[in-house]
Write a structure and sequence with these properties.
Number of domains: 1
Bound molecules: beta-D-glucopyranose
CATH class: Alpha Beta
CATH superfamily: Glycosidases
Order of helices and strands: EHHHEHHEHHEHHEEHHHHEEEHEHEEEH
Helix content: 25-40%
Strand content: 15-25%
Number of strands: 13
Strand order of the largest sheet: 1-2-3-4-5-7-10-11
Number of helices: 16
Radius of gyration: 21 Å
Structural class: alpha/beta
Shape: globular
Largest sheet: 8 strands, parallel, barrel
């Protein structure tokens, strides 16, 4: 069962929906610039206009109100607010976010603001980005500007979205902006600076806002899941093991919450020759009020002949348009593993499904599979909520949008967007989600 006051929300991110890439004095970011190189993004698509939320935000808030959305998670486009990344504040950037917040307040929707969802200011990237030793301070300054400007309106700040992706995909495998393929020791440096930035930002925001706001992170979390009940311990170990990549959650949240990297991460860092002063860990260690999880699926694990194996899913297992398996247990075991390790209230800051769908001849989007997905995942989450503290769920995403390297080809929205006319059309699932919200989850059992 979901608790009273459970937050039912939707999530978006600035570069994926805002557009307005060249308005007023906005600075460029690494996606504005990096996506121009052919071959990086599906069919050369860009987020320059995207859903034009920069101009249409009032309509988007009106739709959220109509569908009874309780919380809206969105991100601030750092270079829209601080065109150079630090220093001068853009009047237009400030106006845009204050107007959006005012609109949300009128609609009675809680604003959950992510400070950084991957659109890093290009001006700072040119100075080395997250590799520059000053980068933690740049992030702290930006966080302080947001805290000062938004403190009367924002209820929750999320420091960063998915370090696993902007570091792993952005700095290691080169699939996302800034499209770098750095050696592991350099990515470790960028990760460490990110964590220092989070530690500094958390302390500054608290100084400015006191207890009026809650602070958390949003982690990309793809838990290992047991094949049978006997594999639960193994699944937990695998979830938190270092696989010598930047994909685990505890690479980041052990330092943030315990002030210490996991032992196997430390061993990997030593192997790569990456070192840092021990005193950094006191800066990184933070007090977080909630643990945000972004989960779409999981990865099954078991033992065979004494060895850990990840069996391939059977061909009959349903897959989304991202080719991710539909595996609702991710929302049952996943939160339990996190709760048992960190004992922090959990919020699903993202979960959702991309489907190959289109408007039918009657102009409707009958996305029954999304409704089925929601029922399955929310039933699993409800079982978890009987055992651990879960405070909210944000569906990804409010509207179809720019899905990074996949361009506009993947559709996650509850609301369809016609990118030619910018017309919004709620899908059948939007009406379903509204009933879920109105019944505090009872609708999922029907
Ligand atoms: C990201 C979103 C993205 C979604 C679906 C998450 O990794 O935070 O920006 O659109 O997953 O891929």
């Amino acid at each position: 069962m979901f608790k009273k006051n459970f937050v039912w929300g939707v999530a978006t991110a600035s570069y994926q929906i805002e557009g307005g890439a060249h308005t007023a004095d906005k600075g460029l970011n690494v996606w504005d610039v990096g996506s121009a190189t052919p071959g990086r993004i599906f069919e050369g698509q860009r987020g320059d206009v995207a859903c034009d939320h920069y101009h249409l935000f009032k309509e988007d808030v009106r739709l959220m109100k109509e569908f009874k959305i309780g919380g809206y998670r969105f991100s601030v486009n750092w270079a829209r607010l601080l065109p150079d990344g630090t220093g001068k504040i853009s009047e237009d950037g400030k106006r845009f976010y204050l107007e959006l917040l005012a609109e949300l307040k009128k609609a009675g929707i809680q604003p959950w603001v992510t400070l950084f969802h991957w659109d890093y200011p290009y001006a700072l990237y040119q100075k080395g980005g997250w590799l520059n030793p000053d980068s933690p301070k740049w992030f702290e300054e930006y966080a302080a500007v947001c805290a000062e400007l938004f403190k009367d309106d924002v209820t929750h700040f999320i420091l960063i979205n998915e370090p696993q992706c902007f570091l792993g995909l952005g700095h290691s495998t080169g699939e996302h902006a800034p499209f770098l393929k750095l050696p592991d020791s350099e990515v470790m440096r960028a990760a460490h600076n990110t964590l220092l930035g989070c530690g500094l930002a958390e302390k500054r925001i608290r100084k400015i806002c006191g207890d009026r706001v809650k602070i958390g992170t949003a982690q990309a979390y793809w838990p290992a899941l047991p094949v049978t009940e006997a594999d639960v311990e193994l699944a937990r170990e695998e979830t938190f093991a270092c696989h010598k990549n930047f994909g685990s959650v505890n690479y980041y949240t052990d330092p943030l919450l315990f002030g210490k990297y996991p032992d196997d991460v430390l061993a990997w860092q030593r192997e790569c020759g990456f070192t840092f002063p021990e005193s950094d860990m006191q800066i990184i260690k933070s007090k977080l009020d909630f643990y945000g999880l972004n989960t779409y699926s999981g990865d099954r694990v078991t033992k065979k002949d004494g060895k850990t194996v990840h069996p391939k899913p059977a061909p009959t297992v349903p897959r989304t348009d991202m080719r991710w398996t539909v595996d609702p247990d991710a929302l049952y075991y996943g939160p339990k593993f996190i709760w048992e390790r960190y004992a922090l209230p959990i919020v699903y800051t993202e979960n959702g499904v991309a489907l190959a769908e289109w408007k039918d001849l009657n102009g409707q989007i009958n996305d029954d599979s999304r409704i089925d997905f929601l029922k399955r995942y929310l039933r699993a989450l409800s079982r978890a909520a009987d055992e651990v503290e879960i405070d909210g769920y944000f569906y990804w995403s409010l509207i179809d949008n720019f899905e990074w390297a996949e361009g506009f080809s993947k559709k996650f929205g509850l609301i369809h967007v016609d990118y030619e006319t910018q017309e919004r059309t709620p899908k059948k699932s939007a009406y379903f989600y509204k009933r879920v919200i109105e019944t505090n989850g009872e609708e999922i059992w029907k």
